Fold this protein.
Amino acid sequence: MKILPHFIRRKISQRPNLQNIIDNIGWLFFERFLRLCIGLFIGVWLARYLGPEQFGLFNYASAFVALFATISSLGLKDIVVRDLVKNPDVAGATLGTAVVLRLIAGLVALILIVLTISWLRAEDELSKYLVAILSLTLLLKTSDIIKYWFESQVQSRYVIWVESSVFITLAIIKIFLILNHAQLVVFIWLVVAEAFFVALGLIAIYLKKAGSFNNWAIGVHRAGELLKDAWPLALSGIAIMVYMRIDQIMLGEILDNEAVGIYSAAVKISELWYMIPIIIASSLFPTIIKTKLSNEQHYLERMQSLMNLLALFALVTAITVTLAANWIILLLFAQDFAPAGNILKIHVWACIFVFLGVAGSRWYVVENLQKLNLYRLTGGAIINVCLNLVLIPQYGGTGAAASTVLSYAFAAYLLDFTSQRTRNLFWLKTRAIFLGPLKLMLDK
């Protein structure tokens, strides 16, 4: 707030909720921008140091664990935030129960990961070892429940202080390790170390702000309520992760680790921009819930404005990156990763549907239509897998990129038209895609 122009601060001086939202978005953008700059620098350096094959193995292991990470999350995030906002009197029971659920789910996911990788790559001891190490992060991510509390209070800056401090420290360590020619497994252990220190930091900052965990409680009835509302989101999360990460796993199984490395270089650039809708939607979600309860028309207008803004960001991003794709890849990753340029030109267009899909997923939660959200995401995941089976053997990474864009368009946009209850969301997205950017520019 302090860095905003004086005339803007004067206009919103009597609107504390808006001030909190702007402050929250500002901190989130700062954290994401910091991660973008440092993460891109370290990620590119690491890719060049490891080379396409080892970088591909690193990303294969990461994608494999991410595929199961949604099991451990149980889809609780939006439900916990919603309940903390709507029912603060039972916040202790919500938080305590959610922690236990996350911990149990993390153990189950870890076991499934080890069993599955042992079956898929029975003779590949290195892959099994790397995946097993990374799976430990699922247990440490139980501390995310504390993040949900800060998000419900629109106080994400405290989480950012913790995560950014750990991130910067480990980035410096990664530079030291690259300069000293460390092995791939060391960088895998650093991922676990980051999750560990973030968990410790979140616990410490929560104790400082909230005082103690004494009001946290575990309730069987509360667990049933959370799981009843969250299970469609959990399955939706699995579907999302399938059509976001299955391409890397299928490239590794159908082709080789080098193909995964080249594809991952393109995806790293394409997905840099996914932070934008997540930041904005996360900050506005508590306010959107309250608006829905008080004024339906105002709620729809806010949703349309949000989608118009996200569509403009996505369109500008897709056009810019497409035009500069080959130059970006050669500049950052060098000649060994040159084929990633054509993959990037295709994959970046998925951002249009990702941006609108993030906002749309919040709409599903507010409208309590999590089951329908599950159906559309499952449909998208199935289409992505089927298209990958057809396109990867013939076109490699470019085929995987095309599969991703088509499946995103299907799941995050077209399927909304098939149900009467979601058709209103389809028209919100349609206006955002075809009229939103023009409207925003004309308004200016």
Q: What stands out?
A: Residues 17-443 form one domain. The mean pLDDT is 82. The longest helix spans residues 16-73.
